[in-house]
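Recall the central idea of this unit: under ordinary conditions, the amino acid sequence of a chain determines the structure it adopts. In this exercise we apply that idea directly, starting from the sequence alone.
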Amino acid sequence: MTDHVLTEIKDRILTITFNRPDKKNALTHAMYAKIADALEDAETNDDVRAVLFKSSAEAFTAGNDLIDFQQAGSHDGSEVSELPVARVLRAFVNAEKPYVAAVNGVAVGIGLTMLLHCDIVYVAEEATIQAPFVDLALVPEAASSMLLPRLTGHVKAAEIFMLGKKVGADEAVSIGLANGKCSQEDLLPTAEKAAAALASKAPQAIRMTKRLMRGDKEVLGAKMQEENIYFGQQLKSPEVMEAIMAFMQKRAPNFG
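Accordingly, the structure predicted from this sequence is:
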């Protein structure tokens, strides 16, 4: 399944392409494993000075593959931390090289939370961003329960996380989730230009600047671990089972 994630290093840019168009780039454990390998290598690879996330389909990513992740329901919080997805989330928290994202369509769940770890983000005019964790009886991830309220304020973050509100391109720019919106034709060239500019700059200065802007990694890591514990507990809960069954049966969930 590794062809569902394409990686290429060229001109000191690591490009990671989500490539599962038939499933709107929903991410599986195998896909996360390849993403984690690429991100972990990038941090120590002198040939990489910037990372670009993009998609080969109309969707950026529909989030986690629910069937694939339902199989993780037997894991507790500590075991969840060893899953490939957790390796990716740790890579986000520990990243010192700049990340750029080109969001060309729907970005759901991890599709939103990863943007909080990107330094430059461009969205297509048609893009919609959503984090329906609570709708699936889950909780936020990747330290996003800290990062999103810090960016948008509590009430806007609550609207996105608790109500599952969809954020369009204009709003994404206005609340600081994206630098700008582009046409589909201009999206990738614009993101590539930004990645190339970052890759051309003094690498140590870029790393130090990102480190200073992001703040204490231990604080972010602790928040992520706290989220992992709650996420792991919910994965094996009756609430999640009901939410997934309702999703599959295209009905409203009944939480009693």
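The chain has twelve helices and nine strands.
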